[in-house]
Amino acid sequence: MTVYPKKSRSIWDAEIASRAVWDSFAKLNPRTLMKNPVMFVVEIGAALLTIQLVRNQLHHATGFAFEFQITIWLWFTVLFANFAEAMAEGRGKAQADTLRKARTETIAHKLKADGTTEEIPGSKLRSGDVVVVSAGEFIPGDGEVIEGVASVDESAITGESAPVIRESGGDRSAVTGGTRVLSDEIKVRITSNPGETFLDRMIKMVEGASRQKTPNEIALNILLAGLTIIFLLATATLQPMAIYSGAPQSPFVLWSLLVCLIPTTIGGLLSAIGIAGIDRVIQRNVMAMSGRAVEAAGDVDTLLLDKTGTITLGNRQATELIPAPGVTDGELADAAQLASLADETPEGRSIVVLAKEKYGLRGRPLSSLEATFIPFSATTRMSGVDFGGRVIRKGAPDAIKKYLTERGGTVPVQVGEMVQLVASSGATPLLVAVDNRVLGTVRLKDIVKGGMRERFDHLRAMGIRTVMITGDNHLTAAAIAQEAGVDDFLAEAKPEDKLALIRQEQAKGKLVAMTGDGTNDAPALAQADVGLAMNAGTQAAKEAGNMVDLDSNPTKLIEVVEIGKQMLITRGALTTFSVANDVAKYFAIIPAMFAGAFPVLQALNIMALKTPQSAILSAVIFNALIIVALVPLALRGVRYRPMGAEALLRWNLLVYGLGGIVAPFIGIKFIDMIITSLHWA
Amino acid sequence: MTTNGWLQILFFLFVVLALTKPLGVFMTRVFNREKTFLDPVLRPIEKLLYRLTGVDETREMRWTEYGAAMLIFSGVTMALTYLIERVQNRLPLNPQKLAAVAPDLAFNTAASFTTNTNWQAYVPETTMSYLTQMAALAYHNFISAATGIALAIAVVRGIARREKDTLGNYWVDMTRATLWVLLPACIVGSLFLVSQGVPQNFKPYTTAQLVDPQTVQITGADGKATTQVVREQTIAQGPTASQEVIKEFGTNGGGFFNANSSHPFENPTPLTNFFELVLIFAIGSGLTYTLGQMTGSPRHGWAVWCAMAILFLIGVTATYSAEARGNPLVQTTANHLQPIGNMEGKEVRFGIANSALWAVVTTDTSCGAVNSMHDSYTPLGGMIPLINMLLGEVIFGGVGSGLYGIIVFIILSVFIAGLMVGRTPEYLGKKVEAFDVKMAMLTVLIYPLFVLGFTGISVLAPKFGLSSLANAGPHGLSEIFYAYAEAGANNGSAFAGLNANTLWYNSTIGATTLFGRFFMVIPVLAIAGSLACKKHVPESAGTFPVTTPLFTGLLISVVLIVGALTFFPALSLGPILEHLLMYAGKVF
């Protein structure tokens, strides 16, 4: 379970809301509004009507109250849409401010060719420079540790207060500018130029400064622009027909009709949905390099998940001690514990814990034993202790077997069978030997994280296939895959197998998402459509992926996929709602326009709206207020429940399609009742 | 409404349903160039044609070339038709010695027949020679229909193909559509019609003595009314049967006679009426199966068929009930004049059910042939044909054009609602992206642009626009609106009541038919070209369903809502207002 230490702000945070109110006015600038064709049309209408209003006043025309209210509400419509966008951006800006504090000017100790250091400002560092950072200092820029090991406080970017270890070589070498070294001294090769650091990119991203419209957003914008033109046409040609019919309309009425018909609801909320979607990803401490990546996450067909750390807890744990024939439980437990006392690996510690909990053996202080500890080595694949004349070893079955054979011992048949049995159940067997006699088997088991099966079931329902990647042998992999409930697995996987699998899936037209942290994951991360790199990983991995998880929690990929889907659903739902709304607005406005000339058209006034003016005004007010009413939905996203496409579509069509047809009938009628009782119209 | 009437309507739909799969499978085979039973006869003819014209039948075309070939071919044949009309007085097969057709009317007619519209601003019996009828008009009946089918097949290929940038060969598709799909049915069908009494000859018109001379009142040029006794009648005839079948089967609709399919020589019996009705729907219905089969999802084809069938039933129910109810004013004053509903403008041998059915069928498709006068329908009964055309004629639709029309609607449905399954929209494994949406919107936009635009101009122009009107008020508006609606939709049915043979209407209606056909086809082909190039996304549980009743319902809603939202204001001042006024006691 990941803890998000950043205080998550409520939708209506007072500070953000008040800033958004001012921003909504600033956004009235036609040059920025032009990017939103729907709202731009409304603004043109509002401006033209304002001029008309003034001219009518100069000519002392009647009907001021109605025309004034229409004009004001058109302005409100634009402002509300601006407000929605400003609210979405505001949340990002608040986050950017926090991040900016981390980007304080630092002094870097740049290593010169002669081995001495010189002090230069951090902002002057170029890619390739090497700096020395000592305890207590801030790391001046993004880079890779090339020498030394240090504990680093990364809370400035991750919010996580516990320090992390960064060391040269391996997969934990990347450091981020603005984080602080707590102990030791490291040499860091800077990998970014000024203004392009991770922190800079992160700030730009959350602020929305570098935000580009995603492909689907562009396509949706085209649809909205097209609908706007169609309604422009329908309204513009209505006037000649109205004149022919002897009922010409005032510009105020025609603009009201147009503004009500064009998809202002989705037009006003579209960019807010996108910004909020990315914001939700950031809230979970994932840095998406582009909105495109978040959108692609919603489309993912195949998830490649590393077994270790994603599906299972990072480490295997001892769950059972199985003695060899003629050996007691106590004997085995004692030897196993002794062999593991100096073993600081999680597996080793879990044996000590098991011996203590299940067999009542307390851990013994190492110093009192006068023992010689043999640490685990990759060549022997064993560890152990020489103690009191006894030689205790534990290790992989084949390693122990080899060790015993060299010393004239053998592994009993029953133990050999047990090893097979344990392995075939998906666990890892270890053998414990004292001198040249096998005492028994330790069952080390991968512990599948809680709730993974449900998650995979959900993903399957959404049509997403999960593939577990592991270096384990086929048998072990199959057992864990079965336990976790993934759809498929790739056993004995080498990094290049991952890349091959991704290519193979993509050749079938599928979109693939994966997580990775090592340098050898980089090609696969780059090839994947959604590549989530771990912040603790190497710089190469971080650059290859299109998202970085600051918490380095690979399970988060699933959440990112869900957010991507949620973002797309929110867009679709509000588009459908917006278009469906038009039906009711026609029934409000068309009879109001022509009932004066043709009283029989009152038959179309099925909402029984009081007067023509009140009907038109109610429709316009509803049209404006619905934008504000839906801001929380746009920012939070439509509630998303994992289910098949057919069920999801049916539910959403019912709520946003049918709801979109019915809601305005009720809303407009209600507003009409209020404004007529207030004598506004 | 009567049980008998409904049984006939449902039996008609049943026959159409039964024909859908065999026809669909046949067309798939024809356009996939698989073996058919007609190959022994037709294949040599086809090969000969390619040798004569130098067509390489194995050459594949990208969408641009496909479109260009189609445009050039249409342009050249249109010019040829114009030419024949202009010089028909010097050409053979003109026993009535008809004069050359006037330039604006010749343009209008050539445009109209090239685009599968077959709007007729003229009286054929007194305007077109037999040669013009056969070589210019019936010829276009074939090739405009074949072009429509070819375009639909190209679009279906675009959906079905994966990562390929070609859509087929226009010349081959057009030739095979003519030879395999249209010609055999027309030969057989014509013989059947002849058996029912439809003429097929080159004789001059017969003058017959009336058994019962009629006294009629004629208003002379000086405005004075005189009475005149009519003793003889000229009976027009000619090569009618051969033109009649393709008129329906190719959803052309241009009548050999002015009275179109209400004329006893075009449509003599209830049996021919039924036969012709089935012909109108046949190809459009069959193509839905072809869509399903070629894209590997027959169930999708049926889902689309169901959407069309339901929209058809809604329309026929509305029109039939409106006509059967009749005019309320007549009901109260002289009920005995319309004991079974509104019979004005309808043929007694067809009655209300078959007239209403025909009116709906002919406007669901781009046929436009009529067996009753839509102008005489009740406001609501006449509004349904108008709405059918305004929806873009996607209810089975014109041959080919109905299918690619509904595909545009499917793409829009998938795009709007598809997001709601949490994936970027896809249609049968093809992602729908910005370019496709742009082209789909363009297609949807072009139609109202010309229909509403020209209607708007016409109603404001007393001189050239309103002077042609026979009726005032909302009915007059409907007449003008209908004229452009049918032209843009390439329907060609006439609401009548509007004298369209004027310079303004001939040229603007002619232009609207051209825009309605070719401006629509280009973006549709562009979509096909773009889809063909795309990768295929495999189907999963998360894929937007296009084979279920839910999809059918969604498609129906999108067709209705897009159509209604665009045209509701105009309709409310036309037929809706007229309907309400009629019940308030005012008629026009």
Please summarize what this structure is:
Chain A is built from 23 helices and 22 strands. Chain A is elongated. Chain A has 681 residues and is of the alpha+beta class.
Features:
heterodimer; A: 681 residues; alpha+beta; 7-stranded mixed β-sheet; 6-stranded antiparallel β-sheet; 23 helices; 22 strands; 17% strand; disordered N terminus; B: 588 residues; mainly alpha; 2 domains; two-stranded antiparallel ribbon; 18 helices; 6 strands; 62% helix; globular
Question: Could you explain the architecture of this structure?
Answer:
The complex is a heterodimer of chains A (681) and B (588). Chain A is an alpha+beta fold. Chain A is built from 23 helices and 22 strands. In chain A, strands 10-22-21-20-11-18-19 form a seven-stranded mixed β-sheet, with helices on both faces. A six-stranded antiparallel β-sheet of chain A has the order 2-1-3-9-4-7, with no helix packed on it. The longest helix of chain A has 39 residues, at 64-102. The two termini of chain A are 56 Å apart. Mean pLDDT of chain A is 85; it is low at 1-8. Chain B is mostly helical. Chain B folds into two domains: 3-203 and 238-583, no CATH class; 206-235, no CATH class. In chain B, the strands form three sheets. Chain B has a two-stranded antiparallel ribbon. In chain B, helix 13 packs antiparallel against helix 18 (549-583). The longest helix of chain B is centred in the C-terminal third of the chain and has 35 residues, at 549-583. Chain B starts with a helix and ends in a 5-residue tail after the last helix. The relative contact order of chain B is 0.12. The mean pLDDT of chain B is 91. Chains A and B meet through helix 7, helix 10, helix 21 and helix 23 of A and helix 14, helix 15, helix 16 and helix 18 of B.
